[in-house]
Write a structure and sequence with these properties.
The protein has about 475 residues and is of the alpha/beta class. It has helices at about 20-30, 35-55, 115-120, 120-140, 185-195, 210-220, 275-285, 295-300, 300-315, 330, 335-340, 345-355, 360-370, 375-410, 425-430, 430-445, 450-455, 460-480; strands spanning about 65-70, 75-85, 90-100, 100-110, 150-155, 160, 165-170, 200-205, 225-230, 235-240, 255-260, 415-420, 455-460. The longest helix has about 30 residues, at about 375-410. Bound molecules: beta-D-glucopyranose. Beta-D-glucopyranose binds next to helix 6 and strand 10. One of its GO terms (biological process) is glucose metabolic process. It is an enzyme of class 2 (transferase).
């Protein structure tokens, strides 16, 4: 999909509303704007939390060693299966690594229903095993002579104890299956696969941020950071073993390891994040209140909901869809807009991309999806402005995390780095990348041409290909331990 540059209404300045509307909007803009000084404060705290998490267990930034050691060469080869669970869909991918940074994929996608997301873990694992089985049959691999190796991208906080072992710390992003927290997701899945006679060995367990780093590195060896900016948010980066003070995993085959930061939980204590009343409302009514506060201010699952809360507040104050406007009852009491999570982040994308003078597309989106008819241009501008401030804050906060990593790793402008990013927000949300760069320019003043030295890039399919690469790395590490690879 082509990214559309929005012809944005400037983030400040009147939109042609009543004095009350203008005043209120100005207040909202102020609440959501992070000044450069404050952004610096957030970044500094992010860095000190990184160090705390590297030195001690049980910190807010969990900084989980991924057991993926060393770097890729781009020459890795072989057929691997990958499984990607963690967003809206479950994907099974057959990845053929061809070397020279090239690969081919074939995949199938199935929806994970809310019932599966919140039911017993055994049901979810059985469903996954069925999807893998169907995929193998379709691809003519069900009677393969050898057991295929599978990399499992399980995009939740897991405390790893080996490359294919770990314990689930907690659920995020609307998942809440019973019988999973404190257990090993690999064992639970392997159990279902065995019970259903699916000939697969789960060889690697990988977080999507780690997988994204790997998949980007396969093509761009100068990658040291991977990020997810989609339904949820997280980051992974390559750390020196000597800086992982809490490491008790014994000898490693390399002096570097990828860290799964689990940065969605950053500042759960709320020391520094500018949490607004609208964020609090989203948090309180979520499946995991008081957890993942940074993620709730950054990611696709929540931005629409934050925006909806601002709009509802304006409606309740009769500053939006007031009694003097057409279809008052229908709009102000819209059952659609009253629905939890009804205003999707994808609507924000479309609205932000709407550059027409009377915001025709915005009106269409609101009509089609939320049954809001006869929205006038001022109302549309208000809605667009709210989307802009919520979206801009998200991108600036994501930028603070990237800058924190770059500064922590002391990546100089001469050295530079590639940053692989996967996720719908980064891929589709207009201006998200430009806004991240705005924050980077503030926080990395040494990087005079920051676009050239901190090279953000879409790592499409990052988590799928990354899981296959992790399975490959697992095999290599195994051979290195046995002394068969130098
Ligand atoms: C999870 C992370 C994951 C991120 C992006 C968060 O909710 O805790 O493990 O990487 O979402 O999918």
């Amino acid at each position: 999909m082509v990214r559309i540059a929005p012809k944005a209404i400037p983030l400040s300045g009147p939109i042609g509303g009543t004095p009350e509307q203008e005043d209120y909007l100005e207040k909202v803009v102020k609440e959501f704007t992070i000044t450069p000084n404050y952004l610096e404060k957030i970044c500094a705290r992010f860095m000190s939390e990184m160090t705390k998490g590297l030195d001690n267990e049980g910190q807010t930034l969990a900084m989980i060693p991924s057991y993926v050691e060393g770097r890729l060469t781009g020459q890795e080869k072989g057929h691997f299966l990958a499984l990607d669970l963690g967003g809206t869909n479950l994907r099974v991918v057959l990845v053929t690594l061809e070397g020279d940074g090239k690969y081919k994929t074939k995949s199938s996608k199935s929806r994970v229903t809310d019932e599966l997301k919140t039911g017993p873990m055994r049901d979810l694992c059985d469903y996954i095993a069925d999807c893998v089985d169907e995929f193998l049959i379709e691809e003519g691999l069900s009677n393969a002579e050898t057991t295929l190796f599978l990399g499992y991208t399980f995009s939740f906080p897991v405390l790893q104890s080996r490359i294919n072992r770990g314990l689930l710390k907690s659920w995020t992003k609307g998942f809440n299956c019973s019988g999973a927290v404190g257990k090993d997701p690999v064992m639970l899945l392997q159990d279902s696969l065995l019970r259903k006679n699916v000939p697969i060995k789960v060889a690697a367990l990988v977080n999507d941020a780690v997988g994204t780093l790997l998949s980007n590195a396969y093509q761009k060896p100068e990658t040291s950071v991977g990020l997810i900016l989609g339904t949820g948010s997280n980051g992974g980066y390559i750390e020196k073993m000597e800086r992982i003070g809490k490491w008790k995993g014994g000898e490693t085959t390399s002096d570097e390891m990828i860290i799964n930061m689990e940065f969605g939980a950053f500042d759960n204590e709320r020391v520094v994040l500018p949490v607004t009343q609208y964020d609090n409302k989203v948090d309180r009514l979520s499946i995991n209140p008081h957890c993942q506060i940074y993620e709730k201010m950054i990611s696709g699952m929540y931005l629409g909901e934050v925006t909806r809360n601002v709009l509802l507040d304006m409606i309740d104050r009769e500053l939006l869809f007031g009694p003097d406007n057409g279809n008052y009852d229908l709009k102000a009491f819209s059952t659609e807009l009253s629905g939890h999570y009804a205003f999707e982040t994808s609507h924000m994308s479309t609205i932000e991309a709407d550059g027409s003078p009377d915001l025709t597309r915005t009106k269409e989106v609101l009509d089609l999806n939320l049954n809001l008819r006869d929205i006038n241009t001022v109302e549309s501008k208000i809605i667009k402005r709210v989307c802009e401030v919520v979206g801009t804050r998200a991108a600036h906060l994501a930028g603070a995390a990237i800058a924190g990593i770059v500064r922590h790793c002391e990546i100089s402008p001469e050295e530079g780095t590639d940053v692989g990013i996967d996720g719908s927000l980064y891929e589709f949300y207009p201006s998200f990348e430009d806004r991240i760069y705005e924050a980077l320019a503030i926080l990395l003043p040494d990087h005079k041409d920051v676009r050239k030295t901190v090279r953000l890039g879409l790592a499409k399919d990052g988590s799928g290909v990354g899981a296959a690469l992790t399975a490959c790395v697992a095999a290599q590490m195994e051979s290195r331990k046995k002394g068969t690879i130098a």
